[in-house]
Amino acid sequence: xxxxxxxxxxxxxxxxxxxxxxxxxxxxxxxxxxxxxxxxxxxxxxxxxxxxxxxxxxxxxxxxxxxxxxxxxxxxxxxxxxxxxxxxxxxxxxxxxxxxxxxxxxxxxxxxxxxxxxxxxxxxxxxxxxxxxxxxxxxxxxxxxxxxxxxxxxxxxxxxxxxxxxxxxxxxxxxxxxxxxxxxxxxxxxx
Length: 191
Fold this sequence. Notes:
Helix content is 8%, strand content 47%. The protein has 1 helix and 13 strands. The chain has one helix at 2-16, and strands at 32-36, 46-50, 59-64, 70-76, 85-95, 101-107, 112-118, 126-132, 137-143, 148-151, 154-155, 165-173, 179-190. Strands 2-5-12-7-8-10-11 form a 7-stranded antiparallel beta sheet, with no helix packed on it. Strands 1, 3, 4, 6, 9 and 13 form a 6-stranded antiparallel beta sheet that branches. It is globular and about 50 Å long.
């Protein structure tokens, strides 16, 4: 009798609790790695895009430390109507249906950054989420449904990120102030 009761309680609990590392769908991995910075992957495919594309003079760079951590750093300038620096990684669209959260393992400088995604290649708009950083390593968890649609910095009257496909990830700093910045990035994945 006690064994049956314990078995039923455990079965009920398993319906309400997710076991870490186990996906809700047996065919879907619990974690989908988007990019893991390390000695093997290097910085392959990542590009810096600053406000120079519109006449500004901000300067960002992306380097890799010997321990395999990427470092996005530089200076944001407001001169010539500038004000942002970013790094971006494009890839063929991937199916992300069923994933709900973007996870960023980062160490910041106390400044705010934006995590930006595109649902398809050459999209006319992107989806953005602003997050704050501390000066210690942290995992920033971003609900995909909270990524808001923008085009050229203007909020669009469209639904938030649909979370079906993904074709680009980007980090951007643009806080409407001239500032030096440094964001260390270890990995980006979906859960």
